[in-house]
Amino acid sequence: MSSNRNHKNVHAFQKSNADRNARRRELYKLMPPEEKKILLARRRAKRAEMRKHNLSESSMNNDLTTASSSNSTIVSVAQSSNLIMRKPMLLLSEIGSTMPSEMNYIKLKEISNCQFCKAKKFEYEPPAFCCSNGSVQLTSHEIPIELKNLYLDNTELSKHFRTYIRTYNNIFAFTSLGVTYDKELAKRNNGIYTFRVQGQMYHFINDVIPTNKKGKNLQLYFFDSQNELQNRMACSNKLNEYVVRTLMEILKINPYSMFLKSLIDVPQLSDFYIALKCDSGLDQRIYNLPTVSEVAGIWVEQDITNSTPPHIRIYTKSDKSQLVNYYYSCYDPLQYPLLFPYGQGGWHCGIKKIKCSSRTSTQIYCEQEQLPSIKNMCSIDGLLNMEAEVMLKEKHKRDTISCREYYCYKLQIRDDENIVLHARRLFQQYVVDEWIKIESQRLDFASFNQDLIRTDVLDGILDVLRKGEREVSHIGKQRILPLSFTRGPRDMRRRYMDAIALVQRFGKPDIFLTITCNPSWPEIEEKLISTDEVQNRPDLVSRVFRAKIEELKNDIMKRHIFGKVAAFMYTIEFQKRGLPHAHFLIILNENYKLLTPEAYDRFVCAEIPDENIYPYLYSLVTQHMMHGPCGKLNPTNSCMKKKGRCKSKYPKEFVEQTTKGKNSYPIYRRRNTGKSVKIRGHFLDNSWVVPYNPYLLCKFNCHINVEICSDIKVVKYIYKYICKGHDKIAFHIQTNDVNLEIDEIKEYQSARWVSPPEASWRIFAFPISEMSPSVYHLQLHLDGQQLVSFKSTDNINKIASNPMIRKTMLTEFF
Ligand SMILES: [Zn+2]
Ligand SMILES: [Zn+2]
């Protein structure tokens, strides 16, 4: 269920399927009994064949959702799970008797590089992940050797440069940055630095001449240039004069810097029209670097005509800041001169894909993209008009590189060392900036296409109708986010409804599992170069975590470590400092339900294992699975609520035996053995152990909490976004005053927080939640909640009385 991309197709597909099934049922009724018998026998044989086929599917094909796009989804997936029934790995009763010897950390498989772009790959990444099977091709990243040394050398100066890289970049950046970031997380000496941003990021260009004596950004290249070094040094007391001098020398080759310095020789500068071009017009697929005349120009005012290339005018002294639009190619090089010292452009519309005729069209496992193909667009109106046209054309095959594809390609690890990935804190900023760019484009798209995407649940329309509203455009006073917008209120609400539908169909969940990324996984550490620190490589963190999630999915769904699974779902979340974790809900097959304390003990343990018998497991439990300390031992721990109680209720009571417990949660065995371990300065015993599964803990070597649960509330918990925050808006529309103006886009944009790992996760188009079997239509069970699309010019009576709206795939099918 990660992709909404198929939504439309699925509708069409299911409709035709429903028609066909109805016809079949009619035919079947008319058949003579012998023929019915033959037909049924043939059916059985066919099903057996399919089951065999499912069995032989390679374990690489882990994408359960692709196999389940038919109406028989639920049936076929549920049936095919009587596969490989391996013996459940480590039974808890075995602790203390024999421990399977293969209990070890299991690394991800090595995967060969992409045959097209030579990118290094991690297990489970689809072939099209890096370069869309060769159709995206961009030149590699060039930087002067002196700068490369600052990034990669081990000298004291280079180390100093890397520590203060954002400061250095800021004083050389041509544009200033407008952003709200979490200052607590960005404090030096306060834990791990994280560049976490709220709301939008803006890049501004200022006048050439500063209003006061102190210049900044592009002014430093031009104003008082004899004293450039001193002026730059005055920007911060962290700077090293030698490094500043070196960078000034390096940036002499930068075309923007050259342009600004050349202005010094222009007499009466204020008489001229000075502009930076939005796009150098260079082909980024072949190696070439922009020249001064390609990035900027100076004209006499009268010469400005329609044929003058799209540009940003800069003034000598106007007291105005110009916004650099995110869709300009110059957006990146103006803000990141230390990443793009030659002024290389970033993404812009119209970069062509490479046509490969031999390529088979592989399904890309990623989120929907709705981006148009346009060239040299310089106004937002033009861009959006084009997008609207594309949308109308429906199935438009893009032949240009989308913004997401572009940055996904650029963030790959290839042999020609990509300096951007090693730019530490500057890389954190860059990743966040580029993701916000991609999302801004999607939001702008939604904003300017309200007519086309206005989709609401039928209930909403009927409400309005009851209140006497007749014109659809009245409902449309609010700007709304489409269902297809990932993490928008409608998307989150649908995910939640799908989850509820799954539980309605398969019963309460049995196992609740939380897995948290371990930044010290060997797969991550191996890929770090000597100058890297893991927190500055959000790309690596995301990719390895995603691969682990896929592996865990296989354990649950294909290797049946908990027994046969009827259904499962998971959501991905990012902690404050950006580390991802995932919540899984697993619903077991009827015959595999965990009903007794003995059954619980088979899968869940909440005790410190014997150090001598299980040294590896012991080290993992003490590393990953000890809660807190909190409470009296540490009253300020993050789990502490206002009343001075731990929200997870640690430390727990000692008990001799696992029991069912009063609520929907069991009480696990925690014996008072007198044994304790020193954790974060305190001795903690069995009452502090977070319930775990020994096999999974050993295999994955990270915090992985496994609990038995039969509480439907956990569904709400894992979809908690729906219960708070931006989702409120979606409910407003149905219940509140119709005259209320609602701007979901603005609300979403200003409330959103973005951390570097989340930004790279989304740039890589990894799913933020999934469920299996897929629920494409179950949501329509909820009566009156069918989705309706309408244009604001439609008459509301016409919409509500249209029989097609009442007809859904589901009512057609059954
Ligand atoms: Zn590739
Ligand atoms: Zn606690």
UniProtKB/TrEMBL annotation:
PANTHER family: ATP-DEPENDENT DNA HELICASE (PTHR45786:SF78), DNA BINDING PROTEIN-LIKE (PTHR45786). Pfam families: Helitron_like_N. Residues 406-586 form the Helitron helicase-like domain. Coiled coil: none annotated. Residues 1-22, 51-70 are annotated as: Disordered. Residues 1-10 have a biased composition (Basic residues). This is Helitron helicase-like domain-containing protein. Residues 56-70 have a biased composition (Polar residues). Transmembrane segments: none annotated. InterPro entries: Helitron_helicase-like (IPR025476).
